[in-house]
C-alpha cells in the first residue's frame, strides 16, 4: 500500500458554485498549512481541532488564488482513516485546477482514480463490497438503484456474507478438530447435521443468486425493445413515453430505419428504450439493415414491447415477429383501438401460444412425458414460454391504455412492488459469480454426504465455498483484482 499524501479534485470539473480539493495522507495537514492563510494570518491548521472548518485564503507563494473554507479531519475518523483536508473553493474549472496545482507543488502527488476509496478499503474502514457500493451509488440511474446501493454501503450484503462464512468456518473447524482429536470429538451423527446446515446455506446462496436478475434491472434499468411491423405505432409510442417528439412519425411505412435509444424513469424504474425499424420482408437495402438490427436487439432484450396495429389483420410479418419473441418477456400493445378493431386479444394469445408448438417442444416433451398426448405436451411446453405475455389495448393517438402499460412493467419485473427495504439484490456480476461458485461447492458437500465420502472431502469443499464468499468482501482477492476494481472509479473518489 502506498502511504504518501495524495490530492485530487473531488467534485465535477465544471463551472459550478463550489468545488472541493481533497488531500489525504500523513502530511495532509502540513501541506494545507503551506498554502492556507487565515484572515489575520495567525492560525495554523496543525493546531486546530479535528473535524473543524476554517475560513481563509489559498496562496501560491505571495499570489492570492481563492477565498476558501478548509475542513480539517484527523485519522482515524475520516473516509480514508488517514489525516484528511478538504478545501472548499469556488467551482470554476480554472480556479480548482490552480488550487490543485498549488497543493501538488507543496508536497502531494495526484491521486489515482478511486485511490481515496481504495485507501479506505486497505485501511479496513470498508470492505470490498461496500467500496463497490460507493461506485454504484455514484452511478445510480434511478431511485431503486440508489436505495439498493445505500443499503449495500451500510453493510446488508457484507453482513449476510459474513454470517454465511461464519457458519461454514464453524463446520470446517469442527471437522478439522474431530480429525485431529477423534478421542475427544466424535463425528457420530455429524453427517446428518452437516447435511441440514449445508441445505440451509445452499438455499440462502440460491436466493441471493436469483436476486441478480432483479438486481441488474435495478442497477442498469430494463432493456426494453419496441418491435412491430412498419406503421404500427412504435415511434408514436416512444414519443408518448419519452414526452417529446423523439422519433419521426409519418403515415409512410418504414420511416424508422435505424434504432433510436432513450433512457427514462417509469414509476422510479429505469427503462432503456430502443425503438427499432419495422420488421417485414423488404427489398430496400437500408431498411433491411434496420430490420436485422431490430432482430438483434430483440434477442438480447429484458422486455419486448410488441406493437400491433389492431385495425389491420395479422399477416406473415406478424407471424415472423411472434416467432422471434416467443420465449421473451413480452407486452403486446394492441394500438389504434380508436379505429375499428379487427385483431382481438384472444387472437394474439392464440397465435403466440401456437408459436410454442415447435418440433423441439414435441421432441423434448416426448422424452419426459411419453404417457401424455402430444397436444398436452406441447401445451405444457407452451405454457412455460407464455408465462410472461400480456396484451393491452392502447391508442397512442388518444393516449389511452398507457397507464396500464406502465403499471404492468413494474408488475412483470417486481410483482408490483420493489421491496428494496427488505431484500438484498445482487447488482454486481463479480458478486454473482462468487455466489455461484460458493453454491457449487456446497452442492459438492451435499454430494459427498450422499455418497458417504470421508469427512476430509467435506472440509475441502467447505473451504472452497468459504474462499468464494471471501472474494465478495475482499478477504480472498489479489492485488490485481483490487487495482482493477478501483481503476473504474472517478478521480477524487
Describe the structure.
The protein is of the alpha/beta class and about 500 residues long. It is built from 17 helices and 13 strands. The chain has helices spanning about 30-35, 95-105, 115-120, 130-140, 145-155, 155-180, 190-220, 235-240, 285-300, 315-325, 345-355, 360-370, 375-385, 400-415, 430-450, 455-475, 480-485; strands spanning about 5-10, 20-25, 35, 50-60, 65-75, 85-90, 110, 220-230, 260-265, 270-275, 305-310, 330-335, 390-395. The strands form two sheets. It has a seven-stranded mixed sheet with strand order 3-4-5-6-2-1-7. It has a six-stranded mixed sheet with strand order 9-10-8-11-12-13, sandwiched between helices. The longest helix is centred in the middle third of the chain and has 31 residues, at about 190-220. It is flat.
Summarize this structure briefly.
By secondary structure, the protein is an alpha/beta fold. 48% of the residues lie in helices and 16% in strands. The strands form 2 sheets. A 7-stranded mixed beta sheet has the order 3-4-5-6-2-1-7.
Question: Helical stretch count?
Answer: 17
Q: Walk across the major sheet and give the strand order.
A: 3-4-5-6-2-1-7
How many strand units? Answer: 13
Give the overall shape: flat
Structural class, judged by helices and strands?
alpha/beta
Q: What proportion of the residues form beta strands (DSSP E)?
A: 15-25%
State the order of secondary-structure elements, H for helix, E for strand: EEHEEEEHEHHHHHEHEEHEHEHHHEHHHH
Uncertain segments are 247-257, 357-387, 416-421
Rg, Å, rounded: 30 Å
The largest pleated sheet is described as: 7 strands, mixed
Mean pLDDT: 81
Distance between the termini: 17 Å
Helix content: 40-55%
Amino acid at each position: 500500500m502506498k502511504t504518501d499524501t495524495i490530492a485530487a479534485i473531488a467534485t465535477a470539473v465544471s463551472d459550478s458554485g463550489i468545488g472541493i480539493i481533497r488531500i489525504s495522507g500523513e502530511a495532509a495537514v502540513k501541506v494545507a498549512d503551506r498554502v492556507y492563510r487565515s484572515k489575520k494570518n495567525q492560525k495554523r491548521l496543525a493546531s486546530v481541532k479535528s473535524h473543524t472548518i476554517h475560513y481563509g485564503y489559498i496562496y501560491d507563494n505571495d499570489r492570492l488564488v481563492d477565498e476558501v473554507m478548509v475542513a480539517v479531519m484527523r485519522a482515524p475518523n475520516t473516509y480514508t482513516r488517514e489525516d484528511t483536508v478538504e478545501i472548499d473553493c469556488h467551482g470554476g474549472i480554472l480556479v480548482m485546477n490552480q488550487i490543485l496545482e498549488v497543493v501538488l507543488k507543496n508536497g502531494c502527488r495526484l491521486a489515482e482514480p478511486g485511490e481515496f476509496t481504495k485507501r479506505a478499503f486497505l485501511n479496513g474502514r470498508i470492505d470490498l463490497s461496500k467500496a463497490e457500493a460507493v461506485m454504484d451509488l455514484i452511478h445510480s440511474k434511478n431511485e431503486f438503484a440508489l436505495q439498493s446501493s445505500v443499503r449495500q454501503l451500510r453493510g446488508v450484503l457484507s453482513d449476510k456474507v459474513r454470517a454465511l462464512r461464519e457458519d461454514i468456518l464453524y463446520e470446517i473447524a469442527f471437522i478439522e478438530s474431530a480429525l485431529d482429536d477423534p478421542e475427544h470429538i466424535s463425528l457420530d451423527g455429524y453427517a446428518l447435521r452437516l447435511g441440514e446446515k449445508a441445505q440451509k446455506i445452499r438455499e440462502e446462496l440460491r436466493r441471493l443468486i436469483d436476486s441478480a436478475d432483479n438486481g441488474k434491472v435495478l442497477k442498469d434499468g430494463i432493456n426494453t425493445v419496441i418491435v412491430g411491423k412498419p406503421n404500427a405505432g412504435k415511434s408514436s409510442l416512444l414519443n408518448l413515453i419519452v414526452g417529446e417528439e423523439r422519433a419521426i412519425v409519418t403515415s409512410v411505412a418504414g420511416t424508422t430505419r435505424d434504432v433510436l435509444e432513450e433512457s427514462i424513469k417509469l414509476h422510479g424504474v429505469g427503462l432503456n428504450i430502443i425503438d427499432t425499424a419495422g420488421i417485414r420482408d423488404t427489398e430496400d437495402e437500408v431498411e433491411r439493415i434496420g430490420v436485422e438490427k431490430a432482430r438483434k436487439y430483440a434477442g438480447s432484450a429484458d422486455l419486448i414491447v410488441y406493437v400491433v396495429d389492431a385495425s389491420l389483420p395479422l399477416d406473415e410479418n406478424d407471424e415472423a415477429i411472434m416467432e422471434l419473441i416467443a420465449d421473451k418477456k413480452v407486452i403486446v400493445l394492441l394500438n389504434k383501438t380508436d379505429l375499428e378493431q379487427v385483431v382481438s386479444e384472444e387472437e394474439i394469445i392464440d397465435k403466440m401460444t401456437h408459436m410454442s408448438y415447435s418440433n423441439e417442444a414435441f421432441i423434448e416433451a416426448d422424452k419426459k412425458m411419453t404417457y401424455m398426448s402430444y397436444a398436452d405436451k406441447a401445451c405444457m411446453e407452451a405454457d412455460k414460454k407464455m408465462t410472461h405475455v400480456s396484451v393491452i389495448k392502447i391508442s397512442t393517438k388518444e393516449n389511452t391504455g398507457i397507464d396500464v402499460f406502465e403499471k404492468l412493467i413494474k408488475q412483470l419485473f417486481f410483482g408490483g412492488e420493489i421491496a428494496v427495504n427488505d431484500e438484498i439484490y445482487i447488482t454486481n456480476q463479480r458478486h454473482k459469480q462468487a455466489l455461484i461458485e460458493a453454491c457449487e461447492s456446497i452442492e459438492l458437500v451435499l454430494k459427498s454426504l450422499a455418497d458417504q465420502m470421508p469427512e476430509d472431502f467435506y472440509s475441502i469443499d467447505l473451504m472452497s465455498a468459504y474462499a468464494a464468499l471471501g472474494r465478495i468482501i475482499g478477504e480472498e482477492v489479489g492485488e490485481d483484482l483490487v487495482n482493477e476494481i478501483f481503476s473504474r472509479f472517478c478521480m477524487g473518489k
